[in-house]
Amino acid sequence: MVYRVAQEALTNVARHANTDSARLELGPADGRPLVLTVADDGDGVSADGEPGSGIRGMRDRAALIGAELTVAPPSGRRGCVVRLALAARDTE
Fold it and tell me: Is residue 59 a contact partner of residue 33, using CB atoms and an 8 Å limit?
C-alpha cells in the first residue's frame, strides 16, 4: 500500500504540478514506524475542494492500513506535500 501511495503521489507531480522536481522521503519519524513524504514546488493542490480520483485512491489505501494521509501545501511555499504516516508503535 505504501508503494501505491508513493506511485500515485509521484504520478500526480508528473501530471499536475508543472515542476521538474519532487522529493521523496521514507523512514521512521515522529514515533511512527514508517512515514512517506512526497513534496514538490509546483502548482499545488486544486483549490476547488474536490479531490481527484488519485487523492481519493490514496485516502482509501491509507484507511485500509490504518494510516494517516495528509495532502496540503507546504507552509509558506508553493507546491504540495503528501504525507502517509503508519500508526504509531505500541510502546507497552
Answer: no
pLDDT in tens, 53-78: 889 999 999 999 999 999 999 888 89
C-alpha cell at 67: 494510516
User: Taking a C-beta distance cutoff of 8 angstroms, is the pair 86, 67 a contact?
Assistant: yes
DSSP 8-state code for residue 2: H
pTM reported for the whole predicted model: 0.89
The domain spans of the chain are: 2-85
> Going edge to edge, which strands form the sheet with 68-72?
22-29, 32-40, 80-85, 68-72
8 A C-beta contact, residue 58 and residue 8: yes
Instruction: Tell me the fold of 2-85.
Output: Heat Shock Protein 90 (3.30.565)
